[in-house]
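Minutes, project check-in
Item: structure for the 390-residue chain
Input as provided by the requester:
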Amino acid sequence: MERKIIIAHVGDRIAAVLSEEGKIVEIHYSPQNEPYALGSIYVGKVRQILPNINAAFIEIGDKNECYYSTEEKYSPIFTSKAGKKPFCVGDELLVQIQKEAVRTKKPVVTGNLNFTGRYAVLTSGNLTVGVSSKISKPKREELLAKAESYGGRGYGFILRTNAADVPWETVAAELEKLEEEYFHIRRIAGTRTCFSCLKEAPKPYISMLRDIYQSGLAEIVAQSGTLYEETRDFLAKEQPDDLRLLRCYTDEQYPLSKCYSMEHVTEEALRERVWLKSGSYLVIQETEAMHVIDVNSGRCMKKKKEFLAMNLEAAKEAARQIRLRNLSGIIMIDFINMGTDTEKQELLAYFQHELNKDRNPGNVIDMTKLQIVEVTRKKVKKTLKESLYE
């Protein structure tokens, strides 16, 4: 599968776009300068503990209090203790922003610090060594055997999908680099004042460069100026092998955003109705509790025995829309009713296959008696709509 990354200014925001086989599947908007970005590490202070919900609120600066679950099984790294209890008001500790603030919900922070590279993630709390489940079993076992020597060092590693496509020496070099970064943060943490930012997360479009699957990446197009320069500098330092893929877009008469129809794709992704080639369509709506997708036969004149084909087409587009709109939490999809269990299982398997193309794949839970498919998807970033209007 051919992939392409496009980075451009759209109005007062920066858009990072992922295209697969010539079709946009992800589009992420971010402001020019975003404080308290996802992945940043701070020295926070415990302001309030709520035992009834097993949570605490931790300030990371400017009276910005974040939600912290006290049920975390990982021991946080304290820089100053205010009492003898495991968790006390006034404690200062290292926290990392795990989820962005959404509407009335505060940002979520964790004491399990993650240091993310292209091939691996170092975790301060989870001390095990793991390998991405998207890697084939034989390769996964091979990588796990090579990574075992990194266990028992007071931290853990997760080898990412990209680790399967490069020599082990490349992965090992990154593991050493992440280890060095982790210990550097630990060394300086005790010397920094409360609310200090010890590690500033990379900008969202830089994160996409780091997180995208290496396989099939054919081109990186960045708008001339700051976006191109920052992209070039990052690749030169962190991913020099990808510098050959970078292209600077310099046509000032025809913006890069229009060249790839970013505004048009965004406009379509904000509509409730999505038409399919067969003449059927999806209706995508948001409620307070969940997202709901209804598959409607519309102008499609297929017979009942062809409903499976219609549902498979809808499943493919629903998976793309979930990814494009960055929908998360509980998602319910009302497909067209089918008669046999075999057809139902084929639909569920195909839908999961399409969801797995995502870096943050949804999980098909089951189909209810009313033939409504239940899906969950981890919420990390804002939805497309929230990133534009909130």
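Outcome recorded: The first strand starts at residue 3 and ends at 10.
No further action items on this chain.
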